[in-house]
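Quick one, tokens below. Sequence please?
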């Protein structure tokens, strides 16, 4: 039987506010356990929540970025359940009336296909604490520093049909929340984590299969592996005549498998009801206008501009707009260089990105600033150095030996563009290689590379390649 995979994602993005969603406690990561949890966060009797306006601003910015409808009136509700890291016994969240309603979409690229993923909703809620199982002599410790940290939960329609599509969507969403400045996206610290709802159904059947939710995927690699395993597991169960039980599962990367955590609760199991301590959240026109005014140019618009204004291929534009920082680096370098946007793009996507990846650096930590890279590329454009020599200069710049001009002068790397000097080198090579000259003139044009190699070696790599090729062809033609 042929099976169709159906996936929907729920993503928790931690909003980068300085204080928590309902208290003034700080949200900085890495503090000693339970040092950033105030009376509101640990639910002492008599405390009352006070909503963080900045959290609403960031949620509205996300809604605007995906083209969704913003609910002018949204309501906080209590989601009741018991868990050790939830001191109140309920989570304050949104269900019936979320701040970001339907209509949002995200475009993803999978291979050469483009696909639109519908976003059902995005709602504000508070994070829970964290259970720590290490070094407690068989006991579990509870750290409530994270309790009350503002989250936006982003829920898709079941539009994804493979682990590759799910990862593509998660990466695009991760880039977007960082781009608009609402989340730092640090997956290792739990700032961005996904739950995957996975089901399968016979090909051509419209009814959705029974889904299983894989919780807390904080790595794109683990997301892909977890979904692929879960798909295989469900198909094997069904083909063996069994049935899928709706449940929550966890992914074990050491065993590369998902395992059952608990039966999946329905909404009515949580006994949602409006929070009596919080008024409805009302978003007015002035508030919306202020949010719009602080929105940066969005990735899709910038990609289109890079294609139209700089003449870049769509692939290059997509790579260069992977982050605001990378796009800014490209624009700064191109502005300094003046022209040759494609050359600039090639170097950023090639040598610079390779070195950054090798060293584990972000573009913001690059030892070579955008203006410095542009200075190097200018010397390629004006013929001072060849592209090959430029790589040597780049390595010296990366090592901190100075700007391109200083390195070229100090190492004597200036390209030889004197026709007379190049002609002399060519004549000497032709004179001592008569057999190869005869081969070339008999039609074996591949021998041309042999002469180029000798000439570049004789000039210590400094001969202008274009001039060298032209002079060689004339001399060899007799």
């Amino acid at each position: 039987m042929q099976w169709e995979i159906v996936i929907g994602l729920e993503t928790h993005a931690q909003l980068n506010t300085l204080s928590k969603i309902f208290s003034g406690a700080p949200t900085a990561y890495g503090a000693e356990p339970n040092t950033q949890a105030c009376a509101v966060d640990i639910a002492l009797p008599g405390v009352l929540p006070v909503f963080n306006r900045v959290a609403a601003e960031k949620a509205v910015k996300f809604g605007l970025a995906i083209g969704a409808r913003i609910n002018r009136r949204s309501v906080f509700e209590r989601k009741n359940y018991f868990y050790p890291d939830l001191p109140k016994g309920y989570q304050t969240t949104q269900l019936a009336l979320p701040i970001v309603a339907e209509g949002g979409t995200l475009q993803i690229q999978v291979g050469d296909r483009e696909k639109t993923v519908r976003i059902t909703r995005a709602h504000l809620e508070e994070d829970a604490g964290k259970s720590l199982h290490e070094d407690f002599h068989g006991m579990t410790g509870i750290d409530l520093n994270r309790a009350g940290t503002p989250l936006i939960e982003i829920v898709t329609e079941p539009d994804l049909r493979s682990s590759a599509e799910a990862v593509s969507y998660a990466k695009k969403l991760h880039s977007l929340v960082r781009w608009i400045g609402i989340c730092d996206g640090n997956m290792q610290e739990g700032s961005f984590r996904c739950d995957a709802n996975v089901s399968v159904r016979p090909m051509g059947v419209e009814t959705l299969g029974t889904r299983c939710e894989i919780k807390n995927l904080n790595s794109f690699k683990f997301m892909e592996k977890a979904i692929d395993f879960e798909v295989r597991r469900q198909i094997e169960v069904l083909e063996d005549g069994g049935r899928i039980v709706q449940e929550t599962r966890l992914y074990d990367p050491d065993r590369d498998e998902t395992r059952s955590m608990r039966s999946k609760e329905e909404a009515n199991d949580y006994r949602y009801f409006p929070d009596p301590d919080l008024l409805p959240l009302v978003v007015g026109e002035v508030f919306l206008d202020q949010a719009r005014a602080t929105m940066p140019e969005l990735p899709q618009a910038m990609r289109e501009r890079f294609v139209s204004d700089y003449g870049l291929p769509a692939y290059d534009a997509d790579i260069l707009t992977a982050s605001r920082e990378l796009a800014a680096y490209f624009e700064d370098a191109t502005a300094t260089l003046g022209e040759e946007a494609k050359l600039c793009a090639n170097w950023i996507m090639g040598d610079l990105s390779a070195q950054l990846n090798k060293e584990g650096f972000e573009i913001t930590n690059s030892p070579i600033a955008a203006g410095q890279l542009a200075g190097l590329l200018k010397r390629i454009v004006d013929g001072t150095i060849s592209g090959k020599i430029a790589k040597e200069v780049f390595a010296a710049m990366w090592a901190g030996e100075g700007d391109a001009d200083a390195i070229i002068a100090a190492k004597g790397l200036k390209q030889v563009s004197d026709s007379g000097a190049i002609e002399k080198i060519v004549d000497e090579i032709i004179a001592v290689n008569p057999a190869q000259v005869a081969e070339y003139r008999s039609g074996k044009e591949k021998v041309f590379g042999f002469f180029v190699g000798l000439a570049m070696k004789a000039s210590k790599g400094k001969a202008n390649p274009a001039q060298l090729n032209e002079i060689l062809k004339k001399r060899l033609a007799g």
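Residues 220-239 form the longest helix (20 residues). The longest strand covers residues 113-126.
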